[in-house]
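Trying the structure run again after the queue cleared.
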Amino acid sequence: MTSKSGSWAPPHSRTGAGRQRRNPQTFHYPGYSSRNRVSGFVVSCRPVNPTDRVDLSVRVGALRLANPVIAACGTFGYGLEFAHLVDLNRLGGFVTKGLSLEPIEGAPAPRLCETPSGMLNAVGLQNVGVEAFLRDKLPLLRKYNTHVIVNVFGYCMEDYFGVIRRLEDAEGISAYELNISCPNVKKGGMQFGSDPALVEEVVLGARKAAQNRPLWVKLTPLVTDIGLIGRAAEAAGADALTVANTYPAMAIDFRTQKSRLGNLTGGLSGPAIKPITLRLVWEVCKTVKIPVVGLGGVETAEDVLDYLSVGASAVQVGTASFSDPKASEAIVRRLPAALSEAKMCTFNELIGRFKAENS
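Done. Tokens:
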């Protein structure tokens, strides 16, 4: 069981106006394992060579990543499917497919549809369920020295909390990512992430369940004020925010008068959404104090630098992995040159440097 000593306090003791912001101490040394824990959370990365001219490491709250590139949920399987193509240890981390309490078969085929500068997907949150993940997937992931972030979802609040409770005692997980874009079946199908009160309620409950690890919250882009949603998640105990999920869209074939997907609609992702999501990341970074991870249309090292410039601490690479399974690793290889071209040696010099006024 993880020690609760130090500056980190249990979630139930830091709700409301008097909640103190966590500032956990972290220690890093050669050979530090991704499964070491201090001050209540898993904190680590592969050792950073202090003699390197360019330091690619970044911090996302309590986690220190070897670089800011994380493979996104839903595009990288459970990591194992890509291990023969990608050196997982080269990545800052990866997010697993979303996990539910019970296995889900997902949506009917076809599940993917190419669009101009992007892609529609309607996978339907297919996954093996938390028990099979713990039994069959996680033991194999422990040999990799990178951050494993587990995405969690549910159709009622108890689903979220139940998955996290099952994962809490398992070794080899660095953080949880809460997908709050799911419909709440007990509230008439309203998305958890569309209402600040619902966001606060589900994040607070997840925070109480997640005693041992950081809690990231993945926001939906379909809200009037995403900064308001971000603040609600932060107030409830989120340690970081992922901005943002896919955009609901559709593609039809006028010849058959049918959807090009097995479902009527799907989620739009890819380079087409980057300008939209870049603005959302900028808006959220202006309104919260916790780290933000940018997700939307990242295909190049320059895309990474764009997101970090507006305030993101790291990025996730999604759709690019469909066209090139090695995309994440290729971006990592390009980062030192991109950072050098920007005349910087660390990402700390870049994060949040964007000027709100052109002059």
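The longest strand covers residues 147-152. Worth checking whether this holds up in the mutant runs.
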